[in-house]
Amino acid sequence: DNSIPSQFQYICDEIFKNKNIHLILCGSIISMMYEYTLSYNSPLYGRRTSAIKLEALEFKYLKDFFPNKTKNELIEIYSVFYSIPKYLELINDKGDIYENIKANILNPNSYLYNEASFVLQNEINEPITYFSILKIIASGEHKIGNIASKLGKSPNNITSFIDKLIELDIIYKIIPITEQNPEKSKKSLYFIKDNFLRFYFAYIFPYKSQLELDNTDYVINIIKTSFMEFISRVYEDLAINYLLNTHKDLLKCGRWWDKNTEIDAVGVAKDYLIVAECKYKNKAVGTNVLEDLKAKATKIDSNLPIKKYILFSKSGFTNDLKALASDEIQLIELL
Predict the structure, then answer these.
(1) What are the tens digits of pLDDT across the range 91-141?
(2) 219 close to 98: Cβ distance less than 8 angstroms
(3) Average pLDDT estimate for 195-214
(4) 78 by DSSP, 3-state: which?
(5) For residue 335, is pLDDT > 70?
(6) How far apart are CA 77 and CA 240, in angstroms?
(7) What is residue 60's DSSP assignment?
(8) At what angle do helices 71-81 and 216-246 cross, to 10 degrees?
(9) Residue-wise DSSP of 153-173
(10) In angstroms, rounded to a whole number, what is the distance separating the alpha carbons of residues 246 and 249?
């Protein structure tokens, strides 16, 4: 109803004028909220006292939803359902992650089966192109040149689509954390921000024809074969946040890479660096991972000395590696 903003304008200007009332307008379709409440052409323009962009809950709060789940189970839930309270309410606390995926996402009659389509189609005009871009990013392609190539287009032809997805906070761009001039960097990579959307475009959107034929087991088996790798990216993000929260003198923290090398997390302080490697595997991490990290760290383009080497592991560490633990070499299991 296009008259709603004008009605609220009257309510704000006349009815609430001398009353102690705090009015909150809340909506999940970003473009609509901007158009009807924040834009210059809106009747409500200039009447807001604040605008809050409400982010998803932090990972640390999931244990309050599921006090009986292990840390590993919480990471699995976070990787798929993110931390949207409505999504979390759907989860059966007694079921494992695959049972919950099957019941709440893969079932064509479930609440989340078409959730991504509903959310995005309200925001964009050409869903096929946007969905194709998101599918390619979810499959593991993060360079704009590679994304464009998979679409059979030139990078210039998809720049506007990429910019729109960034504007809508659906994807984000990163560059190597030590870049001195990030605005001019040509090393940009693009990732899907919302874990649920990433899961959807990795496992639901590409296999909808199978799901429509009720071939759920086929899709579940595909998920199981690569689920550990899928979660590993989320685990790296959690490790980066952990470093920022536990090392307050870090100015920034993020991924670093060059043409041949990649480091999961590099923390940059005023006068030192922290480097970290994350292993989300069913195998204890050994000294070879530490030596590999040290070798990769020598290639970082920075004059700052490395103060700490930190290893994160889903499945613990070998005794040989534990013997090397110190202030300089830190070992951290599930966050």
Answers:
(1) 998 889 999 999 999 999 999 999 988 888 777 877 889 999 999 999 999
(2) no
(3) 95
(4) helix
(5) no
(6) 19
(7) G
(8) 110
(9) S-HHHHHHHHHHHHHTTSEEE
(10) 9
Q: Which whole-number Å values give the CA distances from 129 to 124, 147, 260, in the listed order?
A: 10, 11, 31
| DSSP per-residue string spanning 186-211 | S--EEEES-HHHHHIIIIIGGGHHHH
Give residue 153's pLDDT.
Answer: 94
Rg (CA), the chain: 23
Query: What would the two tokens of residue 104 be?
Result: 């709440």
In sequence order, what DSSP letters do the residues of 89-121 get, joined into one string?
HT--TTS-HHHHHIIIIISTTSTTTTHHHHHHH
Question: Angle 127-138/144-151 helices, nearest 10 degrees?
Answer: 120
The total number of residues shown for the chain amounts to: 335
Nearest by Cα to 254 from 266, 244, 271? 266
Cβ proximity of 305 and 272 under 8 Å: yes
For the chain, domains (ranges, CATH) are: 1-54 (no CATH), 56-234 (1.10.10), 247-332 (3.40.1350.10)
